[in-house]
Amino acid sequence: MNRLCLLLICVLFAGCGYKAPLLDQPVAVSGKLTIAGSPLGGVTLMLQPLQAGHPGVLPVGDDGNFTGNLVPGKYAYYVTKGESAPLPANIDAKLLEADMGRTVTVQPGQPLDISL
Question: How many independent structural domains does the chain possess?
């Protein structure tokens, strides 16, 4: 019984360290998030990869600017509440959920400007 428990614990710990391999190297990205032509700040931009890569979580400054690292490719995106501010009143509830029709493509050296 003790050997079985020890074996089970070893198997569980061995599986905890697995990380999915990246198919490409992350690149630095920066951009501006706007809504109706005005900067949208105090939110977090969430990016879900549609091809290669890992999800991105990019805090957006009060001026609408954001920076981070992402694997090049196509992402669906949405916004969430920022760390210290409530969601602005002019956010449509649809923007709080990922939508396969709302995408952006990350390319090395290209700004990632997003207009909601």
Answer: 1
A 10 A CB-CB count for 83 gives 8
The whole domain housing 100 covers: 21-115
Confirm if 47 and 58 have CB atoms less than 8 A apart.
yes
Which structure tokens are listed for 24? 């490409």
Q: Calculate ∠ Cα 13-71-59, nearest 5°.
A: 85
pLDDT one-digit tens code per residue, 90-110: 677 788 777 888 999 999 989
Query: Residue 9 and residue 74: Cα distance in Å, rounded?
Result: 39
Instruction: Tell me the C-alpha distance between 51 and 6, whole Å.
Output: 39
As a whole number of Å, the CA-based R_g of the chain is 19
Token pair for 72: 């090049």
- Mean pLDDT for the stretch of residues 62-91: 85
CATH of the domain at 45: 2.60.40.1120
Return the minimum-mean-pLDDT range out of 10-19, 48-57, 106-115.
10-19
